[in-house]
Design brief:
Blueprint lengths: L16 H24 L2 H23 L7 E3 L11 E3 L5 H20 L4 H29 L1
Antiparallel strand pairs: 1-2
Helix pairs in contact: 1-3, 2-3, 2-4, 3-4
């Protein structure tokens, strides 16, 4: 039986599972940049972000300046029975604004994600965040003005 020489010219490549993952991460990063660039170039998304953020900022500044003037308990929970059930600590005045901030971040994240494939959904998400922001700012300012 003939003996075969072992050839050292062919070296088997080392198994590197992270090499494939790096390629996947690169493609995901490339997709995200196209999504974000597409959404950043859209004027409606920019308008919704401005209409979402400016009322939140103004209402937060207004609440911070008037925080010392507020009594220890404020009427915040209007869906409860009239009286002491509606009252909350004065630090809770920032709850509607913080909730709106989190909702807006979530909605605009989804809007940027959907922007390439479905612009109507991204506009609806952005418009919803902007509308909720306006309502939360108006509610916060009205509660403060009611008490002052």
């Amino acid at each position: 039986m003939p003996k075969f020489k072992t050839s050292r010219s062919f070296k088997r490549p080392d198994f590197n599972p992270t090499g494939f993952r790096k390629f996947q991460d690169f493609r995901a990063k490339e997709k995200f940049t196209t999504w974000s660039q597409s959404a950043a170039a859209d004027n409606f998304i920019r308008l919704f972000i401005i209409v979402w953020f400016v009322p939140l900022l103004l209402a937060t500044i207004f609440a911070a300046f008037n925080f010392r003037l507020l009594p220890s308990q404020i009427p915040l929970f209007y869906s409860r029975n009239w009286g002491e059930d509606q009252l909350a600590a004065k630090s809770y005045i920032f709850i509607p604004l913080a909730g709106t901030l989190l909702l807006g971040i979530f909605n605009f994240g989804l809007a940027i994600n959907f922007h390439v494939n479905d612009r109507v959904s991204s506009y609806l998400l952005g418009g919803t965040a902007a509308l909720v922001s306006l309502l939360a700012a108006i509610t916060t300012v009205n509660i403060i003005n009611l008490i002052k």
